């Protein structure tokens, strides 16, 4: 029961909170994919009213279809243009989802006005676009968008159905020769189906986010791993260049870490890594990103120029050295052995040392090697 409660709590948190940056970055690609599919699908939908007219459908029904799909095609083209500018507009996924849902509601309204209320409530093709729009939110990897789209679809369709029934009167029978009699129970069933579609899509989003976070998080330390370095750090560097802000990238390598594994064993070595991460993490600011990219190698991104960044790294180096690590903390009877951990670091700043992550990593690694060859336990910012 506790496991189920924990899972439900994690699910609620995932759907309520802002996703991780890596998840959002992948979701931006999903938004672009949805935009392309939306444009292509809307273009194909324009064939439906033409085929309907050729098969003997009414001119008014054909015009409604052409107007609806034509307007949708124009809007789909606008969304496609905006989606190509990855993550420039944080509101885009909410806006496109609301647009999709509302366009479907407007088409149903047009059917009710030009044909009959019964046709609008009993139509199947238009209504199925609601769950399709909800399912499409899974590609955004944002549970907030899924809940928003599902609740909006239920609210708009429910309000539309109530309005039509209110206009018809309490004893009126809504019917159409082509679409049959409107059933109140059918409308409730559709609302339930929209709720189920929303919940299923929300669970899919939750699972996607969990898999992405597991693949992008170091299981030992809980830090972002190389995926964050590959997917997110380039965006941070690009934003710094565009905003004329200097950032510094530091490669950190623990000194003589192999000795700890050899002398005490790998479990103690794992605790030593977590110890260093805890010491660093307690001192980091909100805009400083620490990642584990290797066995005992870390990358730290600092939003400071080279001089202040070197001072910052020196302070962190002294902090790690000042907090001793206890390899045998569970020893009984004797005083626990204390082990002093140190690290070496090489720095590279943007744009002075490079304008992309690969060049910064290359330059910082050169300076890290200089720090190692110079005696370790030091921070090098120049050749």
- Average pLDDT for all residues: 85
Overall structural class, as computed from helix and strand content, comes to alpha+beta
- Rounded to an integer in angstroms, the radius of gyration calculated over CA atoms is 29 Å
Low-confidence stretches: none
Q: Helical content, roughly?
A: 55-70%
Strand content: 5-15%
Q: What global shape is seen?
A: elongated
How many helices? The count is 15
Strand order of the largest sheet: 4-5-3-6-7
Q: How is the biggest beta sheet arranged?
A: 5 strands, mixed
**Count of individual beta strands:** 7
Which SSEs are present, and which pair or pack?
Elements: H1 2-16, H2 21-45, H3 47-54, H4 59-83, H5 92-114, H6 117-122, H7 129-136, H8 143-168, E1 175-176, E2 180-181, H9 184-216, H10 226-231, H11 233-242, E3 247-254, H12 257-264, H13 266-283, E4 289-292, E5 297-302, H14 306-322, E6 343-350, H15 357-373, E7 379-380
Helix pairs in contact: 2-4, 3-4, 4-5, 5-7, 5-8, 7-8, 7-9, 8-9, 12-13
């Amino acid at each position: 029961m506790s496991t189920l409660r924990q899972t439900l709590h994690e699910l609620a948190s995932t759907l309520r909170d802002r996703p991780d940056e890596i998840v959002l970055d992948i979701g931006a690609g999903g938004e672009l994919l949805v935009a392309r599919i939306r444009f292509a699908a809307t273009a194909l939908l324009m064939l439906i009213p033409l085929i309907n007219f050729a098969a003997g459908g009414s001119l008014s029904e054909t015009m409604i279809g052409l107007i609806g799909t034509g307007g949708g095609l124009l809007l789909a083209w606008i969304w496609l243009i905006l989606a190509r500018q990855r993550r420039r507009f944080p509101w885009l996924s909410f806006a496109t989802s609301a647009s999709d849902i509302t366009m479907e509601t407007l088409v149903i309204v047009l059917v009710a006005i030009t044909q009959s209320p019964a046709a609008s409530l009993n139509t199947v093709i238009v209504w199925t676009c609601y769950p399709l729009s909800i399912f499409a939110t899974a590609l955004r990897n944002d549970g907030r968008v899924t809940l928003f789209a599902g609740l909006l679809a239920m609210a708009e369709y429910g309000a539309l159905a109530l309005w039509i029934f209110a206009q018809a009167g309490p004893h009126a029978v809504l019917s159409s020769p082509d679409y049959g009699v409107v059933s109140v129970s059918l409308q409730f069933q559709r609302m339930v189906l929209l709720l189920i579609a929303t919940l299923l899509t929300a669970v899919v989003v939750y699972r996607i986010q969990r898999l992405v976070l597991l693949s992008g998080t170091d299981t030992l330390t809980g830090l972002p791993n190389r995926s964050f370095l590959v997917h997110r750090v380039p965006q941070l560097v690009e934003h710094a260049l565009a905003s004329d802000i200097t950032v510094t990238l530091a490669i950190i390598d623990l000194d003589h870490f192999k000795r700890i594994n050899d002398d005490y064993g790998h479990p103690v070595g794992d605790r030593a890594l977590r110890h260093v991460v805890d010491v660093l993490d307690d001192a980091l600011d909100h805009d400083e990103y620490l990642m584990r990219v290797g066995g005992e190698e870390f990358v730290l991104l600092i939003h400071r120029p080279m001089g202040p960044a070197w001072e910052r790294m020196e302070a962190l180096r002294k902090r790690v050295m000042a907090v001793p690590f206890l390899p045998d903390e569970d020893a009984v009877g004797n005083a626990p052995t204390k082990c002093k951990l140190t690290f070496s670091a090489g720095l590279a700043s943007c744009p002075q040392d490079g304008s992309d992550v690969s060049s910064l990593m290359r330059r910082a690694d050169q300076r890290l090697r200089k720090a190692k060859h110079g005696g370790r336990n030091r921070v090098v910012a120049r050749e």
